[in-house]
From TrEMBL:
The keyword Signal does not apply. This is ABC-2 type transport system permease protein. InterPro entries: ABC2_TM, ABC2_TM_bact-type, ABC_2_transport, Nod_factor_ABC_transporter. The chain crosses the membrane at residues 35-52, 72-91, 112-136, 148-169, 181-199, 245-264. It is a multi-pass membrane protein.
Length: 288
């Protein structure tokens, strides 16, 4: 196949992936159990923020809820991207979806694009469920045109940076039950990421750990978009480090987009009709 032919084949795979992602999103939003999952944490966060009404950051007159909300936005983006896709990989392996994708030219590219779109759209639903009621504590937040442009950029880059990484990690698990380990690991990464506590108050080595993962940078980006400029004093170096944020997230995106199709193809090569049938029988034996 010529270079032009390969390029056109990849474009066709991307278009197919976008169509697949849109359809999967519609089917997912029609499932009550999925909708409950998408809304559960945002509703819990929103309720917590509502209870913070009238409270201020110690030593200041800045609303506590307004201080916490941007970090919750960043955390929700990272958590949705890093944990959501991984849980679907093992299921798709068990029901034969990956086997069918393997048999399609550039099928893994289309599969990855579909997952990015699906989890971008569903994460957007979760964020809307969080942000709308949380605006009741937004009196001290900066909500101008710059805020919205920056938040949209952070959201898109954040999903592209986290979903491929989640797909690659999910490919390493043999069953859907094992993806709970990734959920626990992601939860642990929140601790050194400055989401609920200023990262500058942590030991230096923990600060470096936090800065190695998207949680910190997405939280920082959301804070830079929504908090007044005076609040930058609580950040490392007294700076929002916007350029560094996009560089780090861009590195995660590039590495994920390169590695995810490779890992998926290698994993799919180990699959066959018989292994899919055996996995399905194990799944049915559990009574699902």
């Amino acid at each position: 196949m010529t270079t032009t032919g390969r390029t056109e084949a990849r474009r066709a795979a991307v278009r197919a992936g976008l169509s697949r992602g849109w359809l999967e999103t519609k089917y997912s939003l029609a499932e009550p159990a999925d909708v409950v999952w998408y809304l559960a944490f945002p509703v819990i966060y929103a309720v917590v923020l509502l209870f913070m009404r009238g409270s201020t950051v110690p030593g200041t007159d800045f609303a506590l809820g307004a201080m916490v909300l941007p970090s919750l936005v960043g955390m929700s983006i990272a958590f949705g991207g890093l944990t959501g896709a991984a849980s679907t990989i093992a299921v798709d392996r068990e029901d034969g979806t990956l086997l069918r994708a393997k048999a399609t030219p550039n099928g893994m590219i289309g599969y990855l694009v579909g997952k990015i779109l699906m989890f971008t759209l569903t994460a957007a639903v979760s964020l809307v469920a969080l942000v709308i009621p949380a605006f009741t504590v937004a009196g001290d937040l900066r909500l101008d045109a710059r805020t919205w442009v920056l938040l949209v950029l952070i959201f898109v880059v954040g999903m592209v940076a986290t979903v491929p990484a989640s797909v690659a990690l999910g490919s390493l698990f043999k069953t859907s039950a094992q993806t709970g380990l990734l959920f626990l690991a992601s939860t642990a990464l929140i601790i050194p990421s400055g989401i609920f506590y200023p990262i500058t108050a942590l030991p230096t080595w923990l600060q470096w750990v936090g800065q190695a993962f998207p949680y910190y940078w997405l939280g920082l980006g959301a804070r830079s978009a929504m908090l007044p400029e005076a609040m930058v004093v609580a950040e490392i170096g007294g700076s929002w480090r916007t350029a560094e944020m996009f560089v780090v997230l861009g590195i995660w995106a590039v590495v994920g987009m390169v590695l995810a199709p490779i890992v998926l193809r290698r994993m799919a090569r180990r699959e066959s009709g018989s292994t899919v049938a055996a996995a399905r029988e194990r799944f049915m034996a559990k009574g699902y």
